[in-house]
């Protein structure tokens, strides 16, 4: 059976599925480096944060298409009956998740720049375009932590939602983020009545 690259009303296509799992992987990696960098790799916290910032910046190559694709495509319709709170909680959780990721990508780079440091991208570095400012750096560090917490809560609620569907036997909802929906058959061109 040929499966679809793009989303349809019945399910996700391969592009959404690949971007979803690549983003999940990137979040785990970038989060772990930010939180436990020195424990995982040894070395100092500033060195771990510099590595975290470099890898996080590259991970934008996954997050940006993920967010753009989600905004441009509404995704499949909900086909099962669900409690009223799920109907408004699910899109709210998605919104908090995507907007906290955007906030991480604003506060993170600014925190590096206001520390007066470049972002080291291993092959080259992006120099700071601003003058170092300790007070601003500290506020940005706090905002970055808030965004991390908002992202963690929303990701846990998102995973909880998927587990909730699985426990209620709604496997179709879980499966549709694993296997792409069958491709829609193209209709043969209709002949105009003469
Ligand atoms: C998915 C995106 C990101 C996630 C999940 C993430 C996660 C984290 C975490 C868990 C910490 C440790 C917070 C703490 O307990 O102190 C952290 C710190 C930090 N991150 Fe990120 N981060 C992301 C993106 C970025 C980006 C793009 C940059 C910069 C290019 C960046 C720069 C920093 C800096 C400078 C700190 C240290 C903040 C401080 O100590 O005040 N992060 N991040």
Number of helices: 5
Radius of gyration: 21 Å
**Main sheet attributes: strand count, strand direction, barrel closure:** 2 strands, antiparallel
Helix coverage percent of residues?
Answer: 55-70%
Unreliable residue runs:
none
List the strand order in the largest sheet. Answer: 1-2
User: How many strand units?
Assistant: 2
Terminal CA distance? 37 Å
- Report the order of strands and helices: HHHEEHH
Structural class based on helices, strands and sheet pairing: mainly alpha
Shape: elongated
Number of domains: 1
Question: Can you put this structure into words, describing what you see?
Answer:
This protein has 194 residues and is mostly helical. The protein has one domain (14-175). Helices cover 65% and strands 2% of the residues. It has 5 helices and 2 strands, in the order αααββαα. A two-stranded antiparallel sheet has the order 1-2. Strand 1 and strand 2 (125-126) form a beta hairpin. 18% of the residues are buried. Protoporphyrin IX containing FE binds next to helix 1, helix 2, helix 3 and helix 4.
């Amino acid at each position: 059976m040929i499966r679809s690259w793009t989303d349809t009303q019945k399910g996700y296509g391969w592009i959404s599925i690949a971007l979803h799992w690549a983003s999940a992987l990137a979040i785990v990696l970038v989060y772990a480096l930010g939180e436990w960098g020195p424990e995982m790799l040894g070395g100092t916290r500033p060195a771990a944060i510099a590595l975290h910032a470099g890898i996080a910046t590259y991970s934008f190559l996954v997050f940006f298409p993920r967010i753009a694709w989600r905004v441009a495509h509404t995704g499949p319709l909900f086909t099962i009956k669900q409690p009223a709170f799920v109907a408004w909680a699910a899109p709210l959780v998605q919104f908090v998740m995507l907007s906290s990721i955007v906030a991480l990508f604003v506060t993170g780079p600014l925190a590096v720049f206001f520390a007066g440091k470049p972002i080291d991208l291993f092959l080259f570095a992006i120099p700071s375009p601003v003058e170092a400012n300790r007070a601003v750096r500290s506020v940005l560090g706090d905002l970055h932590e808030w965004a991390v917490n908002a992202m963690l809560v929303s990701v846990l609620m998102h995973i909880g939602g998927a587990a909730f569907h699985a426990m209620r036997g709604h496997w179709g909802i879980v499966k549709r983020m694993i296997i792409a929906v069958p491709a829609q058959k193209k209709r043969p061109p209709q002949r105009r009545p003469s």
